[in-house]
Write a structure and sequence with these properties.
alpha+beta, Alpha-Beta Plaits, globular, single chain, 4 strands
């Protein structure tokens, strides 16, 4: 088992999860984070830290597609190991539906630059 980040993270990008991750397995895109499934040690400390509840075990229904996206994007996006401010308007967008179709960007984020 590993953990995945789903579309609830898109346009929010809270990084509380990054701060508690003991292995720095989070990667930053322009408007979301992903978890590298081969680096995640399945400790679960990140899951309760996510305000929009975007982090789930890969055993959850519907997680397979997100596992693939997390794997693919973590191979090209920069690693992030420190907390940053969420995106502007994140609180208002937490429960928005259809965020992947509306907003997903494969562009990389800033990482720990």
């Amino acid at each position: 088992m590993t953990y995945i980040v789903n579309d609830k993270c898109i346009m929010c990008k809270y990084t509380d999860c990054v701060e508690v991750c003991p292995v720095d397995c989070f990667y930053e895109g322009e408007n979301m984070l992903v978890i590298h499934p081969d680096e995640c040690i399945d400790c679960g400390v990140c899951e309760p830290e996510c305000p929009p509840e975007a982090i789930l075990p890969d055993s959850e229904p519907g997680a397979a597609a997100w596992l693939t996206l997390n794997k693919e994007m973590s191979e090209v996006w920069p690693n992030i190991g420190q907390r940053k401010d969420p995106l502007e308007g994140a609180d208002a967008r937490q429960d928005e539906d259809g965020k992947y179709e509306k907003y997903f960007s494969a562009e990389p984020g800033a990482g720990d630059a």
